[in-house]
Design goal:
By secondary structure, this protein is an alpha/beta fold. Helices cover 29% and strands 22% of the residues. The relative contact order is 0.09.
Amino acid sequence: MLLRLLTPLIRAVLRWPIRIRQRWQWARDEVDVAPGTWVARTAVLGKRVRITGPAYIDPCEVGPYSILGRLIIRCANHYTEYLNIQEIAQRKVIGGKSMLKPMERPVRIGAGCWIGDNITILEGVEIGDGAIVGAGAVVTRSIPAYAIAVGNPAKVIRYRYPDEIVELIKPVDWWNWSDEKLRANVDLFELDLTTVEPAVLKDRLAQLD
């Protein structure tokens, strides 16, 4: 009985070094995580990621400069063929085997994405660089780069830019640039990519180092 009571405390103490390392990495990479957010120990948040509201985040990868609202990223799934489904009851009360299925693939969110509020993203989903997911969506399938997806289940309704522009900017991994290079190319970030001529953008991209 005493061991059962002490087990949660022991686990919490053992987690502290991992949590401290996680927070140190966030501070180093200027990651902003809203209070009340739970982030799995193995989740990887890229440079300057912002989580603007309380969120629940299972193991995943989030690319640099992405914005996440109040959302749930769930990589866990339950076995449904047994009498009980609840994991805690199964393991701690009944003493049976786990009701959680092994994770097959983590969620991957690209760089420079905008993931809105009240969104659920399920296991194995990949969201491409620069994609936008509208508020309230349930994402069950992968979303291409620079697409805009909404709904339950989430579906692509259009792309942020014309097709030719999307193809031109796909190789531009600006999120890996130094701050100095970002500032030196400020005009590129003030360019309206919905109206710019592809030839003009192509010439401008050719000037990058």
